[in-house]
Amino acid sequence: MKDTITLSGEFGQSLEFELIAEISYNETNYVILKPLKKYADLDSDMALVFRVEVTKDGDNYFIEEDDDIISAIEEIYNDEANY
Question: Which residue among 22, 73, 74, 79 is least enclosed by CB atoms within 10 Å?
């Protein structure tokens, strides 16, 4: 069974993602999410890295835009997937 996460889009729409991995890097938590279907700006065959910020109101997910961090997360994921 796939773990799914539902996020609110820019205009309040619900976007469903499959949770691919949870990774900690430089004391920050990240997740790799893959859309469950095609959305306007997201293809269902792409995976995205989100930074997770935990607050008293719950978890907040932000698309990571730093290419160096994205590369590091991908490298960690690939290393772990090869075990």
Answer: 79
* Nearest-angstrom CA–CA distance, 72 and 83: 17
pLDDT tens digits, one per residue of 13-59: 888 999 999 999 999 999 999 998 887 777 767 899 999 999 898 88
Structural domain count of the chain: 1
pTM: 0.86
DSSP per residue, 38-75: -BTTB-TT--EEEEEEEETTEEEEEE---HHHHHHHHH
CB 60 within 8 A of CB 52: yes
Q: CB within 8 A of 76, min separation 6: which ones? A: 23, 25
Burial of 73 (0-12, 13-18, 19+ CB in 10 A): buried
**DSSP-derived 3-state class of residue 78:** helix
